């Protein structure tokens, strides 16, 4: 048959229109994914703990399969429970699913719409992401290795001085997950937060005790992860409530107050940096470099929020402030959580720990600390870290995405505006993918001949774990996070015999149960609650090396123009 160009064009249009009509008809007709039956208006709100949904989401995943849906007072939540479902929607169809959920209270009110992790897929997010990538991408993140090395040496010294303080003193966790200053958790938190502060502001956290700054950072992080949890505020689910007058909308004043509280702290850090930059005393953090570049473009003074409308899209002051906050928040709590879980899981599995020490002794020995070039030669340690991340992902439900359009998956409708969650916890507990999933078995990742591979690359189907999320919103800090986990955990194994507290009467080891959800905190980031551990150097020789290394590091700080450690 000889078809003319005109006929072809008409045929294409007819097919296209028919396709669109069929698609929209299908969209309207398709059922929602299965899920538990709820009650009118409030849906499934009272069927699980909204501050800790992942255990119930696992049960529903086991019952309903790769996709289910729940309704939280009108907020439709679609949960993806297999790597195939999450890959298909969040990676292959990432054009539709690259917005993050923007909770009204946490994003509009507390963050004045400037917090990156809650931004929709928008021009503003792209501007922020590009800038963040400029310091966290594979190349630039390597420049932080020197700081990771030095801060890690300080951490070893702090743990040496800590000894068994947290066992002897029997500390109690404060409100909002507040960690006592002399507990070993604070030492790890100082490491991760100091690294982020140097990256962003060019200033260290050089003190743990009498340093309210460090603890306030964590209080604010805990606050934002709690206020932003889906289901925390009804107004997040029912946009109509946003029209209520102030008197009937107590969350409004609450959210604004939290914004002021945040700005008192983060806004001051920003303005101090700006003043230092204007006085010519600025250091080399992201904020100062950005202000310098902006000033060179003739925009020294750019108050307000958002970015300029021109092609350059310069960030205004408030957007810079919150970009700095996003990096510090995203990089501090997550990385320290991984360390707390690693220590807990290793102590709970003494044979695994013993083997890690044997490997360390054979590969590194006692005359030097492990370093970056040892990565490929410590496959058992690598396997232990990966297994930790599988068994205790710091964000078991990732950060919720959002559907920007109606979509169909496996015959089910995903309505526009739905919250879409990649259920990392259910994927990690899938017995087909990981036989005997609740057991801590590093051997599943043990590969003595393979290259050191953290599986965070683009091959989403065959990843070892999913802790960094999916698609265009994939964790920006993965390179830095992986490097920190390796250097901190390898040196911890190398330097110390760490041990749990034991019952004075029975001599039995006292450790929180890793299988009990109450061992972990609520909220977006799920970290072990504080537990005591003692740190003993493996011999006097190790202790001397740690002390000498700490003294050397003080000279490094001085030559880099950074604050020395105060203890
Ligand atoms: C073990 C440590 C870490 C874990 C488990 C983790 C996990 C995640 C997850 C699940 C997401 C959301 C991904 C998605 O939406 O699908 C995310 C986003 C992000 N992470 Fe990480 N992260 C870690 C460390 C870091 C570090 C060290 C940094 C910074 C230095 C960082 C910076 C970010 C940023 C800026 C985002 C937001 C990306 C966006 O909104 O586009 N993360 N992370």
From TrEMBL:
Subcellular location: Membrane
KW Iron (keyword) present: yes
One of the record's GO molecular function terms: iron ion binding
Residues bound to heme: 475
Cofactor(s) the protein requires to work: heme
GO cellular component annotations of the record: membrane
Pathway: Secondary metabolite biosynthesis
Keywords: Heme, Iron, Membrane, Metal-binding, Monooxygenase, Oxidoreductase, Transmembrane, Transmembrane helix
Family: Belongs to the cytochrome P450 family.
Name of the molecule in the record: Cytochrome P450
Organism: Rhodonia placenta
């Amino acid at each position: 048959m000889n078809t003319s160009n005109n006929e072809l064009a008409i045929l294409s249009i007819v097919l296209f229109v028919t396709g669109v009509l069929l698609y929209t008809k299908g969209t309207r007709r398709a059922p929602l994914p299965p899920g538990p039956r709820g009650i009118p208006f409030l849906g499934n709100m009272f069927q699980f703990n909204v501050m800790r949904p992942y255990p119930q989401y696992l049960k529903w995943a086991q019952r309903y399969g790769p996709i289910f849906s729940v309704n939280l007072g009108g907020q439709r939540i679609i949960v993806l429970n297999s790597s195939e479902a999450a890959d298909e929607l969040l990676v292959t169809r990432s054009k539709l699913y690259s917005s993050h959920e923007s909770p009204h209270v946490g994003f509009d009110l507390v963050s004045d719409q400037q917090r990156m992790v809650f931004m929709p897929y928008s021009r503003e997010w792209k501007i922020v992401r590009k800038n963040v990538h400029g310091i966290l991408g594979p190349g630039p993140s390597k420049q932080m290795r020197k700081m990771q090395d030095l801060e890690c040496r300080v951490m070893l010294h702090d743990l040496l001085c800590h000894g068994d303080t947290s066992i002897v003193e029997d500390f109690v966790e404060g409100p909002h997950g507040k960690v006592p200053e002399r507990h070993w958790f604070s030492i790890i938190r100082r490491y991760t937060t100091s690294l982020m502060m140097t990256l962003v502001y060019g200033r260290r956290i050089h003190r743990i005790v009498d340093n309210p700054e460090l603890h306030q950072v964590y209080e604010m992080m805990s606050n934002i992860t709690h206020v932003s949890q889906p289901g925390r505020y009804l107004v997040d689910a029912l946009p109509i409530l946003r029209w209520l007058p102030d008197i009937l909308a107590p969350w409004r004043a609450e959210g604004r107050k939290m914004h002021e509280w945040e700005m008192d702290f983060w806004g001051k850090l920003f303005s101090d940096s700006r003043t230092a930059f204007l006085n010519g005393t600025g250091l080399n953090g992201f904020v100062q470099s950005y202000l310098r570049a902006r000033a060179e473009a003739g925009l020294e003074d750019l108050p307000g929020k958002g970015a300029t409308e021109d092609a350059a899209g310069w960030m205004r002051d408030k957007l810079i402030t919150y970009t700095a906050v996003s990096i510090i928040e995203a990089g501090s709590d997550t990385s320290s959580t991984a360390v707390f879980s690693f220590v807990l899981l290793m102590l709970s599995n003494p044979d695994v720990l013993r083997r890690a020490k044997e490997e360390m002794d054979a590969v590194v020995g006692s005359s030097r600390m492990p370093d970056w070039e040892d990565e490929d030669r410590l496959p058992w340690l690598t396997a232990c870290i990966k297994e930790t991340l599988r068994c205790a992902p710091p964000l078991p439900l990732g950060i919720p995405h959002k559907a920007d359009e109606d979509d169909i998956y496996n015959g089910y409708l995903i309505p526009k505006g739905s919250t879409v969650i990649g259920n990392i916890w259910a994927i990690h507990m899938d017995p087909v993918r990981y036989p005997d999933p609740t057991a801590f078995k590093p051997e599943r990742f043990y590969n003595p001949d393979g290259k050191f591979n953290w599986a965070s690359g683009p091959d989403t189907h065959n990843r070892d774990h999913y802790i960094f999320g999916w698609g265009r919103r994939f964790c920006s800090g993965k390179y830095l996070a992986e490097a920190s986990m390796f250097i901190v955990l390898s040196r911890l194994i190398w330097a110390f015999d760490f041990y749990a507290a034991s019952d004075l009467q029975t001599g039995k080891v006292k450790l929180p149960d890793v299988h009990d959800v109450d061992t972990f905190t609520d909220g977006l980031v799920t970290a072990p609650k504080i537990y005591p551990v003692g740190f003993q150097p493996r011999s006097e020789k190790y202790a001397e090396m740690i002390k000498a290394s700490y003294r050397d590091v003080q000279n490094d700080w001085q030559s880099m123009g950074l604050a020395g450690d105060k203890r």
